[in-house]
What does this fold into?
Amino acid sequence: MCKGDIPISTRLKLTLENICNLAREVGFDACGVAPVRRLEEDAQFMDHWIAQGLHGEMDYLERNCEKRYDPAVLVPNAQTVVVCLLHFDHSGRDYHRRVKSMLYALEGKLREAFGDDIVSQTHQHIFCDSAPMLERRWCVEAGLGFIGKNHQFIHPVLGSMVHPGEIVLNRAVDGYRIADIGNGCGDCKLCQDACPTGALRSSVWDARACIAYTTHHCLECQIVCPYNRKKELKI
Ligand code: SF4
Ligand code: SF4
It folds into this structure.
Protein backbone atom coordinates (compact mmCIF):
# COMPACT_ATOMS: atom_id res chain seq x y z
CA MET A 1 0.00 0.00 0.00
CA CYS A 2 1.39 3.44 -0.94
CA LYS A 3 1.98 6.03 1.73
CA GLY A 4 -1.22 7.97 2.31
CA ASP A 5 -3.48 5.28 0.89
CA ILE A 6 -6.63 4.69 2.92
CA PRO A 7 -7.10 1.00 3.68
CA ILE A 8 -10.19 -0.19 1.82
CA SER A 9 -11.65 -1.54 5.05
CA THR A 10 -12.03 2.01 6.39
CA ARG A 11 -13.81 3.32 3.30
CA LEU A 12 -17.03 1.34 3.53
CA LYS A 13 -19.31 0.84 6.49
CA LEU A 14 -20.52 -2.66 7.11
CA THR A 15 -24.16 -1.99 6.32
CA LEU A 16 -26.93 -4.01 4.73
CA GLU A 17 -26.93 -1.65 1.78
CA ASN A 18 -23.20 -2.01 1.10
CA ILE A 19 -23.37 -5.80 1.38
CA CYS A 20 -26.37 -5.89 -0.98
CA ASN A 21 -24.55 -3.73 -3.51
CA LEU A 22 -21.64 -6.16 -3.55
CA ALA A 23 -24.04 -9.12 -3.84
CA ARG A 24 -25.68 -7.45 -6.84
CA GLU A 25 -22.26 -6.90 -8.43
CA VAL A 26 -21.60 -10.65 -8.45
CA GLY A 27 -25.04 -11.31 -9.95
CA PHE A 28 -27.38 -12.21 -7.11
CA ASP A 29 -31.02 -11.19 -7.52
CA ALA A 30 -31.70 -10.46 -3.85
CA CYS A 31 -29.75 -10.20 -0.62
CA GLY A 32 -30.52 -9.74 3.06
CA VAL A 33 -28.77 -10.08 6.41
CA ALA A 34 -29.85 -11.47 9.76
CA PRO A 35 -28.24 -11.40 13.19
CA VAL A 36 -27.17 -14.85 14.35
CA ARG A 37 -29.42 -16.47 16.92
CA ARG A 38 -30.47 -19.94 17.95
CA LEU A 39 -33.62 -20.74 16.01
CA GLU A 40 -35.68 -21.84 19.02
CA GLU A 41 -39.02 -22.25 17.21
CA ASP A 42 -37.42 -24.29 14.42
CA ALA A 43 -35.55 -26.43 16.93
CA GLN A 44 -38.82 -27.29 18.66
CA PHE A 45 -40.67 -27.86 15.39
CA MET A 46 -37.94 -30.03 13.86
CA ASP A 47 -37.39 -32.12 16.96
CA HIS A 48 -41.14 -32.87 16.95
CA TRP A 49 -41.22 -33.46 13.15
CA ILE A 50 -38.29 -35.87 13.33
CA ALA A 51 -39.75 -37.64 16.38
CA GLN A 52 -42.90 -38.31 14.31
CA GLY A 53 -40.77 -39.84 11.54
CA LEU A 54 -42.02 -37.30 8.97
CA HIS A 55 -38.45 -36.76 7.71
CA GLY A 56 -38.57 -40.17 6.02
CA GLU A 57 -35.09 -41.47 5.24
CA MET A 58 -33.31 -38.16 5.74
CA ASP A 59 -31.36 -39.65 8.64
CA TYR A 60 -28.79 -36.86 8.51
CA LEU A 61 -31.42 -34.58 10.04
CA GLU A 62 -31.13 -36.55 13.25
CA ARG A 63 -27.45 -35.61 13.58
CA ASN A 64 -25.69 -32.31 14.30
CA CYS A 65 -28.98 -30.70 15.33
CA GLU A 66 -27.39 -27.97 17.46
CA LYS A 67 -25.19 -26.90 14.55
CA ARG A 68 -28.30 -26.58 12.42
CA TYR A 69 -30.26 -24.64 14.97
CA ASP A 70 -27.48 -22.22 15.89
CA PRO A 71 -24.89 -20.91 13.37
CA ALA A 72 -22.68 -19.86 16.30
CA VAL A 73 -22.18 -23.55 17.08
CA LEU A 74 -21.36 -24.20 13.42
CA VAL A 75 -19.02 -21.23 13.02
CA PRO A 76 -17.43 -19.92 16.24
CA ASN A 77 -17.88 -16.14 16.69
CA ALA A 78 -20.62 -16.03 14.04
CA GLN A 79 -22.63 -12.81 14.26
CA THR A 80 -24.39 -12.31 10.95
CA VAL A 81 -25.83 -14.50 8.22
CA VAL A 82 -25.77 -12.95 4.75
CA VAL A 83 -28.40 -14.61 2.57
CA CYS A 84 -28.31 -14.27 -1.21
CA LEU A 85 -30.84 -15.50 -3.77
CA LEU A 86 -30.37 -16.46 -7.39
CA HIS A 87 -33.48 -16.91 -9.49
CA PHE A 88 -33.44 -20.00 -11.71
CA ASP A 89 -35.27 -21.35 -14.71
CA HIS A 90 -35.65 -24.92 -15.92
CA SER A 91 -32.65 -24.89 -18.25
CA GLY A 92 -30.95 -27.69 -16.39
CA ARG A 93 -27.91 -25.56 -15.62
CA ASP A 94 -25.94 -26.42 -12.52
CA TYR A 95 -27.16 -23.64 -10.28
CA HIS A 96 -25.64 -25.19 -7.19
CA ARG A 97 -22.13 -24.74 -8.57
CA ARG A 98 -23.00 -21.32 -9.91
CA VAL A 99 -24.34 -20.07 -6.56
CA LYS A 100 -21.29 -21.46 -4.78
CA SER A 101 -18.85 -19.72 -7.09
CA MET A 102 -20.84 -16.47 -6.76
CA LEU A 103 -20.65 -16.80 -2.97
CA TYR A 104 -16.87 -17.17 -3.17
CA ALA A 105 -16.74 -14.09 -5.41
CA LEU A 106 -18.84 -12.18 -2.89
CA GLU A 107 -16.63 -13.34 -0.03
CA GLY A 108 -13.62 -11.96 -1.92
CA LYS A 109 -15.34 -8.59 -2.26
CA LEU A 110 -16.38 -8.56 1.41
CA ARG A 111 -12.82 -9.31 2.54
CA GLU A 112 -11.45 -6.65 0.25
CA ALA A 113 -13.94 -4.06 1.48
CA PHE A 114 -14.08 -4.91 5.19
CA GLY A 115 -10.95 -6.89 5.99
CA ASP A 116 -10.05 -10.59 5.95
CA ASP A 117 -11.23 -11.07 9.52
CA ILE A 118 -14.85 -10.54 8.48
CA VAL A 119 -15.12 -14.31 7.97
CA SER A 120 -13.73 -17.24 9.92
CA GLN A 121 -10.18 -18.20 9.00
CA THR A 122 -10.63 -21.68 10.42
CA HIS A 123 -14.20 -22.82 9.81
CA GLN A 124 -16.38 -23.28 6.77
CA HIS A 125 -18.55 -20.18 6.47
CA ILE A 126 -20.05 -20.49 2.98
CA PHE A 127 -23.14 -22.66 2.63
CA CYS A 128 -25.26 -23.56 -0.35
CA ASP A 129 -27.79 -26.34 -0.24
CA SER A 130 -25.90 -27.75 2.74
CA ALA A 131 -27.42 -29.69 5.58
CA PRO A 132 -25.98 -27.64 8.47
CA MET A 133 -27.99 -24.51 7.61
CA LEU A 134 -31.77 -24.19 7.85
CA GLU A 135 -31.67 -22.24 4.61
CA ARG A 136 -35.35 -21.47 4.17
CA ARG A 137 -35.57 -20.15 7.70
CA TRP A 138 -32.53 -17.92 7.23
CA CYS A 139 -34.12 -16.53 4.06
CA VAL A 140 -37.07 -15.50 6.22
CA GLU A 141 -34.84 -14.24 9.04
CA ALA A 142 -33.10 -12.01 6.49
CA GLY A 143 -36.46 -10.48 5.56
CA LEU A 144 -36.48 -11.88 2.03
CA GLY A 145 -39.88 -13.58 2.08
CA PHE A 146 -41.99 -16.25 3.77
CA ILE A 147 -42.51 -19.98 3.79
CA GLY A 148 -45.63 -20.88 1.83
CA LYS A 149 -48.14 -23.66 2.29
CA ASN A 150 -46.15 -25.60 -0.32
CA HIS A 151 -43.31 -25.72 2.19
CA GLN A 152 -41.13 -23.61 -0.10
CA PHE A 153 -39.48 -20.33 0.67
CA ILE A 154 -41.23 -17.66 -1.41
CA HIS A 155 -39.79 -14.30 -2.32
CA PRO A 156 -42.67 -11.89 -3.03
CA VAL A 157 -41.23 -10.88 -6.42
CA LEU A 158 -38.97 -13.75 -7.47
CA GLY A 159 -41.30 -16.50 -6.25
CA SER A 160 -39.99 -19.84 -5.03
CA MET A 161 -37.74 -20.67 -7.98
CA VAL A 162 -34.70 -19.34 -6.18
CA HIS A 163 -31.49 -20.88 -4.98
CA PRO A 164 -30.26 -19.48 -1.66
CA GLY A 165 -26.67 -19.28 -0.50
CA GLU A 166 -25.26 -17.99 2.77
CA ILE A 167 -22.07 -16.44 4.08
CA VAL A 168 -21.61 -16.34 7.85
CA LEU A 169 -19.79 -13.22 9.03
CA ASN A 170 -17.86 -12.72 12.25
CA ARG A 171 -19.07 -9.15 12.52
CA ALA A 172 -22.36 -7.43 13.28
CA VAL A 173 -23.90 -5.32 10.52
CA ASP A 174 -24.98 -1.74 11.11
CA GLY A 175 -28.74 -1.38 11.25
CA TYR A 176 -30.19 -4.81 10.56
CA ARG A 177 -33.41 -4.28 8.67
CA ILE A 178 -35.68 -7.28 8.85
CA ALA A 179 -38.82 -6.96 6.76
CA ASP A 180 -41.90 -8.54 8.29
CA ILE A 181 -43.38 -10.17 5.22
CA GLY A 182 -45.49 -12.64 7.22
CA ASN A 183 -47.53 -15.30 5.49
CA GLY A 184 -48.35 -14.20 1.97
CA CYS A 185 -50.50 -17.23 1.10
CA GLY A 186 -53.72 -15.86 2.54
CA ASP A 187 -56.68 -18.09 1.61
CA CYS A 188 -54.94 -19.63 -1.40
CA LYS A 189 -54.51 -23.41 -1.34
CA LEU A 190 -53.73 -24.10 -4.98
CA CYS A 191 -50.60 -26.05 -4.09
CA GLN A 192 -52.43 -28.27 -1.62
CA ASP A 193 -55.09 -29.05 -4.24
CA ALA A 194 -52.46 -29.69 -6.94
CA CYS A 195 -50.25 -32.02 -4.94
CA PRO A 196 -50.80 -35.50 -6.41
CA THR A 197 -49.84 -37.37 -3.24
CA GLY A 198 -51.38 -35.35 -0.44
CA ALA A 199 -47.96 -34.50 0.99
CA LEU A 200 -49.28 -31.00 1.73
CA ARG A 201 -52.62 -32.15 3.07
CA SER A 202 -51.98 -30.97 6.58
CA SER A 203 -50.08 -27.85 7.57
CA VAL A 204 -47.01 -30.04 8.03
CA TRP A 205 -45.10 -31.26 4.97
CA ASP A 206 -44.80 -35.05 4.90
CA ALA A 207 -41.47 -35.86 3.22
CA ARG A 208 -42.40 -39.54 2.98
CA ALA A 209 -45.25 -38.69 0.59
CA CYS A 210 -43.42 -36.07 -1.49
CA ILE A 211 -42.39 -37.12 -4.99
CA ALA A 212 -39.71 -34.41 -5.20
CA TYR A 213 -38.07 -35.87 -2.14
CA THR A 214 -38.15 -39.43 -3.46
CA THR A 215 -37.56 -38.93 -7.22
CA HIS A 216 -36.74 -35.21 -7.68
CA HIS A 217 -39.29 -34.87 -10.51
CA CYS A 218 -42.20 -32.89 -9.16
CA LEU A 219 -42.66 -29.15 -9.23
CA GLU A 220 -46.47 -29.14 -9.21
CA CYS A 221 -46.81 -27.20 -5.97
CA GLN A 222 -44.48 -24.53 -7.32
CA ILE A 223 -45.84 -24.35 -10.86
CA VAL A 224 -49.36 -23.54 -9.66
CA CYS A 225 -48.20 -20.92 -7.18
CA PRO A 226 -49.26 -17.40 -8.20
CA TYR A 227 -45.96 -16.05 -6.91
CA ASN A 228 -44.15 -17.95 -9.66
CA ARG A 229 -46.23 -16.34 -12.36
CA LYS A 230 -45.17 -12.83 -11.51
CA LYS A 231 -42.90 -10.91 -13.80
CA GLU A 232 -39.23 -11.30 -12.95
CA LEU A 233 -37.68 -8.24 -11.49
CA LYS A 234 -34.19 -7.56 -10.29
CA ILE A 235 -34.26 -6.07 -6.84
S1 SF4 B 1 -43.21 -31.61 -4.86
FE1 SF4 B 1 -45.00 -32.69 -5.69
S2 SF4 B 1 -45.42 -34.34 -4.24
FE2 SF4 B 1 -44.04 -32.92 -3.19
S3 SF4 B 1 -45.40 -31.54 -2.08
FE3 SF4 B 1 -45.03 -30.58 -4.07
S4 SF4 B 1 -46.70 -31.27 -5.41
FE4 SF4 B 1 -46.66 -32.62 -3.59
S1 SF4 C 1 -49.94 -21.90 -4.23
FE1 SF4 C 1 -51.02 -20.48 -2.88
S2 SF4 C 1 -51.06 -21.48 -0.88
FE2 SF4 C 1 -49.52 -22.55 -2.11
S3 SF4 C 1 -47.63 -21.52 -1.60
FE3 SF4 C 1 -48.42 -20.48 -3.41
S4 SF4 C 1 -49.61 -18.75 -2.59
FE4 SF4 C 1 -49.25 -20.18 -0.89
